[in-house]
Amino acid sequence: MSKKVRLGIIGLGQQGGMYAKFITDGLVPNMEIGAITDTDPAKRELAAATYPGVKVYDDYTAMLDSGDIDAVVTCVPHYLHPEIGIAALSRNIHALVEKPAGVYTKQVKELNEFAASKPELSFAIMFNQRNNPLYQRLKEIVDNGEIGSILRTNWIITTWWRPQGYYNSSEWRATWGGEGGGVLVNQAPHQLDLWQWICGVPKSVFAKVSYGFRRDIAVEDEVTAVVDYGNGATGTFVTATHDMVGTDRFEILGDQGKIVVEGSKTATVTRMKKKEREISESMGMEDVRKLFMGQLNMDDYLTTETVEFDSVWGAQHAGVLENFAANILDGTPLLAPGSDGINGVRLANAIHLSSWKGGEVGLDFDEDEFLGLLNEHIRDEGKYAERK
Fold first, then answer.
1. Where is the GFO/IDH/MocA-like oxidoreductase domain (predicted)?
2. Rounded CA gap, 200 and 109, in Å?
3. Rounded-to-integer distance, Cα 268 and Cα 22, Å
4. CA of 25: how far to CAs of 1, 19, 20, 49, 301, in Å?
5. At what angle do helices 105-116 and 80-90 cross, to 10 degrees?
6. What is the spatial distance between Cα 331 and Cα 345, in angstroms, rounded to a whole number?
């Protein structure tokens, strides 16, 4: 292999086109475009004109067998990510799958198990927000115990307003059989991943989900989910695609501090000098009087820090590509191992399942039951074949 990884881009849509541009613009110095695959003749013509000298294919298996590439990135509909990932790995080609890793855990588990049988190959997922220095720093703070044990988390993320024209743009979009869901599988996977990456995987979820609430679609466009971490700790996740104003606010309350993130750009980190319960138990009625009168000096009990990083557009995606190539070339640890992709899919599945059943669902839910209910929705649409 050369000192640059030859990447095969499968799908030259918005994401694939963006990655190709990053590479040709030199933002990924250890990678080059080895080949491009797209089933659309117009996209193939565009690829040939834009990237002269790069082989262009109409079938990804032909590209995988060509010898032109060392690795692939799967910029295709969600259902195809596991299938193409396995096809690449089976030919000893490294695989970077787009988010989400798949639509349902059964197919993602199959991908993970196959990847585990090929430990010599690099298997990653495009969780570019794990390359966001703000969220990397917040994970360090939580992991180091700087705000104590987590008591409650809340994330309201409604900043992706989508008008009806967006949903009308493609036959497969916002369908059970073509896309596999709505906001949970399209817009929110990065937040579902970060939420668990930083705060831990919950034990169960209860969800209220509206399907076609404010848009003429079959899938979800409004979600409110409550999760249980055990030991009394809870969390909420609210997302939608009809909020034209939009909110992005993430809070993590610990027993010795709190993190509040606004707009995924600025975090206020409050650290208590003692655990909240110790402070509570140390206060007498005079302290309570001062509290009620607004005279309690909170600086005696806590400190506040603002965490903020400049974020250049594209740097996070390009950084994941560069890290993936570095893992292939010299074993640099992956920012986002592909096996982690199942966490967000599992939580999205549990949210759907909870809403379909009308009750609380454990994260160890019956995968066959979920797939059976998903196939019921696919059958009702009457557009696509059922999934196995």
1. 135-259
2. 19
3. 32
4. 22, 10, 8, 16, 50
5. 10
6. 27
Contact 101, 342 (CB under 8 A): yes
Top-level class of domain 131-310+344-381: alpha beta
Domain residue ranges of the chain, discontinuous segments joined by +: 5-127+314-337, 131-310+344-381
Residue 270 bridge partners (DSSP): 258, 304
Is residue 312 predicted with pLDDT exceeding 80?
Answer: no
Is the Cα dihedral 361, 172, 166, 82 positive or negative? positive
Render pLDDT for 320-358 as a digit per residue (tens, 0 to 9): 999 999 999 999 999 999 999 999 999 999 999 999 999
CA gyration radius for the chain? 23
Q: E strands, 11-93, where?
A: 31-37, 55-57, 71-74
* pTM of the full structure: 0.95
Alpha carbon distance 156, 238 (integer Å): 5
Name the superfamily (CATH) of residues 5-127+314-337. NAD(P)-binding Rossmann-like Domain (3.40.50.720)
Sheet of 302-308: strand order equals 302-308, 266-272, 257-262, 248-254, 150-157, 233-240, 220-230, 204-211, 361-362
> Are 159 and 246 a contacting pair, CB within 8 Å?
yes
CA 373 to chain centre: 23
